[in-house]
Design brief:
Layout: H1 5-15, H2 19-32, H3 36-57, H4 65-91, H5 93-103, H6 111-128, H7 133-159, H8 166-177, H9 183-199, H10 203-215, H11 219-232, H12 235-240, H13 243-252, H14 256-273, H15 275-292, E1 296-299, E2 302-305, H16 312-315, H17 319-340, H18 346-349, H19 376-381, H20 386-394, H21 399-412, H22 418-426, H23 436-439, H24 442-459, H25 494-503, H26 507-514, H27 524-532, H28 537-547, H29 552-564, H30 568-581, H31 586-598, H32 602-615, H33 620-632, H34 636-646, H35 654-666, H36 670-684, H37 688-694, H38 696-701, H39 706-715
Antiparallel strand pairs: 1-2
Helix pairs in contact: 1-2, 1-4, 2-3, 2-4, 3-4, 4-5, 5-7, 6-7, 6-8, 7-9, 8-10, 9-10, 9-11, 10-11, 11-24, 14-24, 14-25, 15-17, 25-26, 25-27, 27-28, 28-29, 29-30, 30-31, 31-32, 31-33, 32-33, 33-34, 33-35, 34-35, 35-36
Length: 716
């Protein structure tokens, strides 16, 4: 998205609430980019500001001064936003084309006329339904085509219209709440309003979206409005220029149902962000397993069918049934991902967005309708196809993917055998259907729309013209982390979202969330989560234990934090306390042994470790700690037996290779130690000096002299 540096300077002054500097900065911009209307508006703001300043300089105490200053600041922001929006439109060819198509027509864009046109369309469709099908088909196609072109123009107009007046916003709000306007049209308008407000915050559009969310009876309209005002939020502008919006937001958040929907929305946005990661999981872990157990194998040239082996039925009579169970398990794993909220179809359908249909921006966000004029060829051709009808009505796809499916279906249907086509016509093919009651649920409606938005922001060729809510670098998608939500009733849901982020291994996002907690909300779980994501674990586990002194998780975390700070004696005492609660817990026993090893209490550590080794002789974690303890204790022959076991696996851990090198060096087998160290350095890319620095104190204790260390560096 193209922005002017000079205008960015204006915005910086406005955020600093420095109206005088903002006026001067805008003056400089208009000197280079003169425009009579903008110059006149700036002159009016400067005149009012100068008049206010003159009264102040003469010692007059105006009780309305703060309010007047705030009003001027808002007028200046509106001027800035309109000029900046126009600058962006003029400097981006794609937006320029939308602007000229929409604004250079003779069409009346007043809300009243827009409403009349949309209501007239609904009436015309209703009248056509009364006519015989054979006589109304041409009229119907023409009506849908004209309406589609009209909606494209309206969408483009909204998108490039700059900031709205209160009266215009009120008129569009009336359109969006009118029961006489088609829901699909209302949903599309909301998408345009949202995208426009995301680029440059518009308080009138924000209020409109919030009002529609609160008042709409149509759930699809309502959920789009919810996502709209959330994505349009601009914390900085609201805090410094429109502080009254914060009060409006707080009043909305008094409704617990709203807080619950926002909490669900935040999780759903995270699932969208994880779409490509989930797709990688499907491609690498699930699909190969499905292909493998269905009699195929993957080669460098693609997927090939395996030849049948007549002996397999004799040698492995249950193999077919077992393979079927494994395929079913893989499918169920994918379905479970979908039920949790994962966008499992993104990877497949992302390859199906190259149809000319998706060159038109509005088609990415339009609710699915088989009457869409640009899919009419397919719709008419497959009017009686039950499979396609079921897929489009109850298939688990977002609107964008349904359009992709219809267009792709039209291309491939002719290549299928006749018996398969007949089966599809009869609707006999298996389809993963979504129950009608599920489709109507707010959570499902939100998820479908979010998937449409995610595809738009990830795949649309002109996506750079818009502010991307899903940008991973800027983290705008973590809207719970915005300061506007701090200190509001929704903070009661912060722990739920933060723990969800931690569960999804999104620690960077969790840290953003934790930074937004109000001091009064910093409870036991807050300190535990801070410590878990690496925010001063020693301090935060300690604070958690102050609140719940006997909490086992907090004690275990604090013990590990003490260990990481080399406070082995304190950590050992805590692990002993934990073992009094769970005497046989292996992780506590292992950690205790490691503490004892670092405290050179080798005999005590070995007692614990040999017991664990006896109980689980193949446990690599136990054997790794035992091998190192024996090395430190000078029992090199015993240690070497364990290292032989640890290094016999296909891909041994680099840490085991390094520690085996120390064991060999300390036992006098220098050449073998050198081989281990060289292998470790090659695999890890570490420096030679690391070999000496990593166990500097132990090397000294083992009597390795400085010349020996230098020679080791030389031969490495």
């Amino acid at each position: 998205m193209i922005k002017s540096e000079a205008l960015t300077r204006v915005l910086e002054c406005l955020i600093a609430r420095n109206l005088g500097e903002a006026i001067a900065a805008m003056d400089s911009f208009l000197a280079v980019h003169p425009h009579q209307i903008n110059t006149d508006r700036l002159f009016a703001i400067r005149t009012d500001y100068q008049l206010m300043a003159d009264y102040w300089r003469h010692g007059f105490k105006d009780p309305q001064l703060t309010q007047l200053y705030d009003n001027l600041l808002k007028r200046m922001y509106v001027l800035y936003a309109n000029i900046a929006s126009n600058y962006t439109v003029r400097h981006m060819p794609f937006l320029s084309s939308l602007f000229y198509k929409a604004h250079m027509t003779a069409r009346d864009w007043s809300p009243q006329v827009i409403k009349e046109d949309l209501e007239s369309y609904v009436s015309d469709v209703a009248l056509l339904d009364l006519e015989p099908e054979h006589t109304s088909e041409a009229k119907r196609s023409d009506l849908y085509a004209r309406h589609y072109r009209s909606m494209v123009e309206l969408f483009d107009y909204i998108l490039t219209s700059g900031l709205w007046t209160d009266s215009f916003a009120a008129g569009i709000e009336d359109v969006l709440l009118a029961p006489t306007v088609d829901s699909n049209d209302q949903q599309l308008i909301i998408s345009g309003v949202m995208l426009s407000a995301m680029s440059y915050f518009d308080v009138t559009k924000f209020r409109l979206l919030m009002h529609v969310y609160q008042q709409a009876k149509d759930e699809e309209v309502r959920q789009r409005a919810l996502i709209g005002w959330v994505f349009a939020l601009d914390s900085v502008i609201i805090l410094y220029i429109y502080p009254e919006v914060r009060e409006l937001l707080k009043s909305v958040l008094e409704d617990e149902h709203c807080c619950q929907e926002l909490t669900e929305l935040q999780k759903q946005v995270i699932y969208c962000i994880n779409a490509e990661q989930d797709n990688a999981t499907i491609q690498k872990e699930i699909m190969p397993d499905i292909i493998k157990h269905q009699g195929f194998h993957i080669t460098k040239d693609g997927v090939e069918e395996q030849e049948e082996d007549p002996l397999r039925d004799i040698l492995h009579p249950n193999e077919a049934e077992e393979n079927l169970e494994k395929v079913e398990a893989s499918f169920q794993k994918m379905i479970a991902m979908q039920k949790q909220g994962s966008d499992i179809y993104f990877g497949g359908f992302s390859q199906m967005k190259r149809f000319p249909f998706f060159n038109e921006m509005v088609n990415w966000l339009m609710p699915f309708d088989m009457n869409h004029p640009e899919i009419q060829t397919a719709a008419n051709q497959f009017k009686g196809n039950r499979f396609l009808k079921t897929m489009m009505k109850n298939g688990p796809f977002c609107n964008s993917d349904k359009y992709s499916f219809v267009l792709a279906f039209e291309q491939v249907i002719g290549q299928l055998p006749q018996n398969v086509r007949n089966m599809l016509d009869r609707g006999e093919a298996a389809v993963q259907e979504v129950a009608t009651e599920e489709i109507m649920k707010p959570a499902y409606i939100r998820r479908i729309y979010l998937q449409d938005l995610y595809r738009f922001f990830r795949l649309f060729t002109q996506r750079d013209a818009f502010e991307n809510i899903f940008d991973v670098q800027e983290q705008k998608y973590i809207f719970f982390a915005r300061s506007l939500f701090s200190g509001t009733p929704i903070e009661q849901h912060f722990n739920e979202i933060t723990s969800f982020l931690i569960k999804k291994k999104r620690h960077r996002d969790a840290i953003e969330m934790l930074a937004n907690y109000d001091l009064d909300r910093q409870d036991f779980q807050y300190f535990m989560m801070c410590a878990y994501v690496g925010q001063d674990p020693l301090k935060n586990y300690s604070r958690a234990l102050e609140l719940q002194p006997e909490n086992e998780r907090a004690m275990a975390g604090y013990a590990r934090a003490l260990f990481s700070k080399f406070k082995y004696q304190e950590a050992l005492e805590l692990f002993d306390k934990l073992l009094s609660l769970q005497p046989d817990k292996k992780s506590y026993l292992l950690n205790k042994a490691v503490c004892q090893t670092n405290l050179q209490q080798y005999d005590e550590a070995e007692k614990v470790l040999f017991r664990l080794n006896y109980e689980s002789p193949d446990d690599i974690y136990v054997n790794r700690v035992l091998a190192w303890t024996l090395t430190c204790d000078g029992k090199y022959e015993q240690a070497e037996k364990f290292y032989e076991q640890l290094l016999s696996v296909e891909e041994p851990l680099s840490e085991d290779i390094l520690n085996n090198g120390y064991c060999l060096w300390f036992s006098g087998r220098v050449d073998e130690a050198v081989d281990c160290f060289r292998r470790y350095l090659k695999e890890t890319g570490q420096s030679k000096q690391f070999i000496l620095d990593n166990e500097k104190e132990l090397i000294r204790i083992k009597g390795i002299t400085e010349p020996e260390c230098q020679m080791m560096l030389y031969v490495l």
